[in-house]
């Protein structure tokens, strides 16, 4: 089941500390681009990458369980087969949400998260959803506001 706009907006309002599992140190990878965008919007990004020490100026952790502070959202940039253990780790650390990025959709991981009371999003990009719901989509630097089929009222 895909969350509605109000649920996504609430999640993005409430989840301010985001552990990005699979965050790449390579600036041209989608994970780096999305995390950089979110960091620029005031979110605390926590890289989870055992092969790096520092990404986007933040200390990297090898596993979710190694993070010594509370995490609101676990954003997953890994192949679908890798997600169930990540979901179990998200539950173990007390995260509020498991978010599987575009192209990542593992129903077992979704069931693990939901059974433990976490909110779960699959096959969506946090950056795209934030930009769409909070007016960050633009063309040539012109802010278009929130995309909707309904006209705005004054």
Q: How confident overall, as mean pLDDT?
A: 90
Q: Which structural category do the helix and sheet elements fall into?
A: alpha/beta
Give the CATH H-level superfamily: NAD(P)-binding Rossmann-like Domain
Per DSSP, the total helix count is 5
User: Judging by the overall fold, what is the CATH architecture?
Assistant: 3-Layer(aba) Sandwich
For the terminal residues, how far apart are their CA atoms? 33 Å
* CATH level 1 class label: Alpha Beta
The CATH topology corresponds to Rossmann fold
Tell me the overall shape.
globular
Order of helices and strands: HEHEEEEHEHEHEE
The profile of the biggest β sheet is:
5 strands, parallel
Strand order of the largest sheet: 2-1-5-6-7
Can I get a quick summary?
The chain has helices at 5-14, 30-40, 83-93, 107-115, 126-134; strands at residues 17-21, 44-48, 54-55, 58-59, 73-76, 97-100, 119-121, 138-139, 142-143. With 154 residues, the protein is of the alpha/beta class.
Q: How would you portray this structure in words?
A:
By secondary structure, the chain is α/β, with parallel strands linked by helices. Helix 1 packs across helix 5 and helix 3 runs parallel beside helix 4. Strands 2-1-5-6-7 form a five-stranded parallel beta sheet, sandwiched between helices. The chain starts with a helix and ends in an 11-residue tail after the last strand. Helix content is 32%, strand content 19%.
